[in-house]
Write a structure and sequence with these properties.
The chain has about 120 residues and is mainly beta. It has one helix at about 1-20; strands at about 20-25, 25-35, 40-45, 55-60, 65-70, 75, 80-90, 95-105, 105-115. The strands form two sheets. The chain has a five-stranded mixed beta sheet. Strand 8 and strand 9 form a beta hairpin. The longest helix is centred in the N-terminal third of the chain and has 17 residues, at about 1-20.
């Protein structure tokens, strides 16, 4: 019982810290694309926590076919940063889904890329 209570508290406080971080989207669907296309998109992250600067500590893509870069690493209250993403589609056909994990001082966030390769 104590373990369940402890886990509940950890999850509650983790969620409280991420409530002040907003994204314009967490998934981008490119639709139908061709093999070997270079796809580009952007995700915008907003800091709505007046008590703390949001720090982007690391961005980890799920594969080497993704390159991502934030416009800045420190985001003050009421400000935002753009994470630019380049996705080099390979030769695999059909649905492709790739993920990017953004690690911050307020937790981590998962972003998704979807494309249907013809």
């Amino acid at each position: 019982m104590k373990i369940i209570l402890l886990l509940s508290c950890i999850l509650f406080f983790k969620n409280q810290s991420t409530l002040s971080v907003y994204w314009n989207k967490t998934t981008h669907n490119f639709g139908n694309v061709k093999k070997n296309d270079l796809l580009k998109t952007e995700f915008t992250c907003y800091n709505k926590d007046s008590s703390q600067v949001l720090i982007i500590e690391n961005i980890v893509p799920s594969c080497g076919c993704i390159v991502s870069k934030p416009s800045k690493h420190q985001i003050p209250f009421n400000d935002s940063a753009i994470i630019s993403v380049d996705f080099k589609v390979g030769k695999k056909v059909n649905k492709q889904q790739k993920n990017i994990v953004v690690f911050t001082n307020k937790g981590y966030f998962e972003l998704s890329l979807i494309a249907h390769v013809n």
